[in-house]
Amino acid sequence: MIDKPEKITQELVFDLADRLTAQGVDPTNLRIRELNGNRGSLTSITPLLKAWREQRTSQAIESLPDMPTDRLLGLLQPVWAELAREAQALFKAEQTAFDDAKKRHDAEVTGYIDEIDRQSNEIESVNLTLSRAIEENQDLRQQLAAFSERERQQVAQISSLQHDIQLLKSAADESNRVNATLKAELAAAKIELALAKESLTLAKEAEQEKAVDLRVAENQLNGLKEQLGFANQQIADLKRSLDLSALTNTELEQKNAVLTNTANNAERNLAELKVSLLNASEQLAQANSRADIAEGKLSALTLNAAQQKHGKSK
Length: 314
Prior knowledge:
Helices cover 89% and strands 0% of the residues. The chain is an all-alpha fold.
């Protein structure tokens, strides 16, 4: 065998056939192809090998000695017959080899066709898979775009929430500041309310004392009025009595003047007590008003503090 398969040419076939002949081996298409490393088709080797045989036959005829044609034909006839038999046998072998090679070639072609069909089916399946992958890729791109838009919206929402949180923190700080102010105002209102209640208690006590004094003064005035009436009655009785002396009349008039003065003083004291009672009533009303105002402030501050606490809990 040659080291490296060569392209089938006339020179190559002739050279390989000569080598086989030198080895005492009859050159055939299969042997030529095998010697060439199983390269080259039989249809390419056959005409070249036939040309080699014709050339070698011509050379053999030219090398024969000169003799009469009849004798030469007689000598060559057995050779030609043997060559014809060998050629026929060789043809049959070559035909069988050709048929086998054709069958193998047809089988290979069928296999190639089946492989092509299989690969076509695979390509069609791959194309279908590729189309589906492209569609899925488009769907994924749309989903990615939707996710990107959703992420952008979420980032915007987070930014808005952070802004709201900052505002809430500022509002909470302001609320704490207002709450501290309200607590201070509430403490001051409680103190003011306590003072108002204390003033109200003192005013009530003063009013009660004035009422007691007023009742005592009224009782005294009533007693003085009774005494004055009794004295006036006595004076009238004494004046009707002719036996009274001038001295007695003067004493009675002096006594009457003292009683009248006492009654007038009692009336003035009663008027002053009434004024004092009126002032005490006004102070009591003012104290009640201050207490109501303080209680209103306390209620408003308590409500505001509760609202601030409720708002902060939300």
